[in-house]
């Protein structure tokens, strides 16, 4: 039997975020393009060598990017929207980053979540362009690895069905034409890789795990029939992940050399399908046995047992031992995390540690012995040590969760009655203007916080700085003319990490970064114990800000589901139970803000949708407890306390009902890159509560004009009644520069004033 170790993909961020730093130096024009390319090459080769040294036998090529892999593929196929023709004299790299980030001349392409993860990809836009192969970057990376390191890698690219599934701009009539244009290009890429010596080519098709109708399955069969006929000598392995393979008996028999299955998130259903249908004996089976989305070490004995069962059920001769998905969703290595509690540190496995686990398992399957004595007992010991730790035995938290009643999930009166009372109490103008919460985290803010954490300045000095920065931005907001202000969140590093630092049950890493979008990296907290509120977390800063102005200052909190979905979460209890613990903790903070006189409280849930299972038949269970967790946090407030929430990029067209179920008085939605789509959705599915559609894209450095924002507001007015209409940017402004922020918000407020005047004149 042939056994091979591999992973679907590996983090490209670098152990010390060197990839991020290189990109940002280039964007700031601190380095020229040739230096930029050379530095990226060094990073690219180092990560391949690192995987080789860790013991991987088959190393993936093409999982590296200069911003986003979906964007890479779109540009490689010349799927470039017409609006970027304005940059026809610019370099290819300038156009690439214009699509990713926008410029003064042109807006960026739409961004949305990659399946049910916190990674954002750039949405391909089909405009019936002439498609052709512009530059086979995967071939270049393959030859680079071969020539520089002697590595014959496994090239990977996102498959044609998934790529079209993620794209926009076509309808049922033009979709077939889109496929017909793409397939020869895929064939050309694959043929070039085969000619260059690639033994295997990985085609990633995560969309194969979604609900598929019969016509979609027929389409997939035809797509792969044509593709494999075009390049018959290619050994293609279709890689699925995030769930079990849909229509197992059909898709496992596609005319390819191998299939990769997720035996972590799709274990139960994939096992059931293997038992029912078997597996083609002439195909290679890649077993995704190591969880690519969490940071917990594996029980080696259980992993080997699962593989043994898969071997027996499938009867194949060629097995690959792999991660369940790309390891880009976890940090690079835990080596820097020596300050964590030892029982937690021992139970962690980041990307490098997961590769070692794969190597150990592969060695055992190949030779029947473990490469290190006592390794299985050790893997069980560290898991049991954490499971029995006192931090997971908080009886008070357990009693609070068990005491939750149905009445804890609803406000005392319906929205329409609350709306009347809030309007009378708050006395806000029509089309009130506000921001989502955070203001620019300047280098001075970051430097001062770093000095405080290193104890180079005192607590008193740091508090004084935060107060000064808050006061400065309260004044700026008043000068701009915003109606509802925020304190700016200068004391916060991250919208999840900050709250975790004040709650029990959390741990924090030093260098465990993962990419969220572009060069934006996050350092997810680790929820490894019971979560409990012990003291006010935000009251001091918000109350101090409120004293500086006669306008309302919003209390700013992160919601329970976002904290859950943007953390690495313990596995010994259900995610629902952890979510309820978080909901109860945020409920306590809401009460503390109310008691301090704060009348508007925003509880952000940008990650609500990304927790959805990929299969729609599993949505209801998740949405029930996810929405209930938010309502648990908000249901106890006074009738005239106004609850806001916020959501980030995601497809809202099929998500209006869950948003409505939150029963928030006002929701702001991140929609500037896909504004027209939500407008059309609201025409069909009206929204009865307060709503603010993001009027400009904060992920781009460009400053929108008054006319541009006014056009968006007027379009929105067609579907949002005046009494429900709020005006706000897309998201928080933490990553923007101060000059950009002030200019953009000034234009936004001016556009809102023009709209008020227009409505009054009618």
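^ structure tokens above, recovered residues below v
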């Amino acid at each position: 039997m042939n056994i091979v170790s591999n992973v679907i993909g590996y983090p490209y961020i670098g152990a010390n975020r060197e990839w991020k730093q290189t990109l940002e130096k280039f964007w700031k024009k601190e380095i020229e393009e040739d230096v930029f390319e050379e530095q990226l090459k060094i990073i690219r080769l180092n990560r391949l060598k690192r995987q080789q040294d860790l013991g991987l036998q088959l190393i993936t090529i093409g999982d590296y990017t200069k911003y986003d892999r979906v964007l890479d593929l779109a540009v490689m196929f010349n799927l470039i929207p017409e609006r970027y023709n304005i940059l026809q004299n610019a370099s290819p790299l300038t156009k690439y980053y214009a699509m990713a980030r926008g410029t003064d001349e042109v807006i960026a392409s739409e961004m949305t979540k990659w399946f049910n993860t916190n990674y954002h990809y750039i949405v391909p836009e089909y405009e019936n362009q002439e498609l052709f192969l512009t530059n086979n970057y995967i071939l270049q990376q393959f030859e680079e690895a071969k020539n520089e390191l002697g590595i014959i890698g496994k090239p990977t690219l996102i498959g044609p069905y998934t790529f079209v599934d993620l794209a926009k701009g076509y309808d049922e009539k033009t979709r077939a034409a889109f496929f017909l244009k793409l397939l020869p290009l895929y064939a050309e890429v694959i043929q070039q890789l085969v000619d260059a010596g690639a033994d295997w080519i990985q085609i990633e098709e995560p969309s194969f795990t979604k609900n598929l109708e019969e016509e979609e399955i027929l389409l997939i069969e035809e797509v792969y029939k044509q593709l494999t006929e075009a390049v018959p000598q290619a050994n293609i392995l279709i890689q699925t992940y995030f769930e079990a393979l849909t229509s197992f008996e059909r898709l496992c028999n596609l005319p390819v050399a191998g299939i990769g299955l997720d035996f972590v998130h799709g274990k139960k259903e994939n096992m059931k399908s293997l038992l029912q249908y078997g597996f083609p004996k002439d195909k290679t089976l890649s077993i995704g046995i190591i969880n690519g989305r969490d940071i917990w070490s594996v029980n080696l004995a259980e992993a080997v047992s699962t593989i043994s069962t898969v071997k027996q059920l499938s009867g194949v001769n060629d097995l690959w031992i792999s991660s369940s998905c790309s390891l880009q969703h976890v940090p690079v290595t835990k080596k820097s995390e020596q300050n964590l509690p030892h029982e937690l540190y021992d139970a962690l496995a980041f990307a490098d540690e997961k590769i070692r686990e794969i190597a150990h398992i592969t060695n055992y399957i190949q030779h029947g012995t473990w490469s290190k004595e006592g390794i299985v007992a050790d893997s069980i010991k560290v898991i049991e040590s954490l499971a029995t730790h006192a931090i997971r035995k908080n009886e008070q938290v357990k009693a609070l969760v068990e005491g939750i009643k149905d009445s804890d999930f609803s406000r005392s009166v319906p929205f329409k009655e609350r709306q009347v009372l809030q309007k009378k109490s708050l006395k806000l103008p029509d089309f009130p203007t506000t921001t989502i919460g955070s203001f620019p985290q300047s280098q001075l803010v970051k430097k001062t916080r770093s000095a405080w954490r290193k104890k180079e300045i005192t607590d008193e000095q740091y508090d004084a700085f935060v107060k000064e920065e808050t006061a400065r931005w309260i004044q700026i907001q008043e000068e701009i003319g915003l109606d509802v202000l925020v304190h700016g969140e200068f004391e916060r590093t991250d919208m999840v990490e900050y709250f975790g630092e004040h709650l029990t049950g959390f741990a924090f890493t030093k260098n465990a970064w993962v990419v969220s979008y572009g060069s934006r990296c996050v350092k997810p907290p680790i929820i490894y114990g019971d979560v409990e509120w012990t003291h006010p977390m935000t009251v001091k800063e918000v109350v101090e800000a409120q004293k500086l102005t006669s306008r309302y200052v919003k209390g700013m909190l992160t919601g329970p589901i976002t904290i859950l979905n943007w953390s690495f979460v313990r596995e010994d209890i259900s995610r629902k139970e952890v979510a309820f613990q978080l909901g109860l903790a945020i409920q306590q903070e809401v009460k503390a803000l109310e008691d301090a006189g704060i009348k508007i409280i925003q509880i952000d849930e940008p990650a609500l949708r990304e927790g959805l299972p990929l299969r729609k038949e599993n949505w209801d269970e998740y949405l029930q407890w996810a929405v209930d967790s938010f309502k648990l946090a908000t249901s106890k407030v006074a009738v005239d306390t106004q609850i806001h929430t916020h959501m980030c990029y995601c497809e809202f067209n099929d998500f209006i009902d869950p948003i409505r179920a939150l029963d928030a008085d006002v929701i702001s939605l991140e929609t500037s890159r896909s504004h027209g789509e939500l407008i059309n959705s609201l025409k069909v599915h009206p929204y009865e509560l307060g709503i603010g559609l993001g009027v400009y894209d904060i992920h781009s450095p460009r400053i929108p004009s008054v006319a541009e924002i006014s056009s968006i507001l007027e379009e929105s007015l067609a579907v949002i009644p005046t009494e429900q209409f709020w005006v706000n940017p897309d998201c928080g402004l933490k990553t923007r520069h101060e000059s950009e922020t002030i200019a953009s918000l000034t234009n936004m407020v001016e556009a809102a004033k023009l709209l008020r005047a227009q409505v009054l004149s009618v």
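The mean pLDDT is 94.
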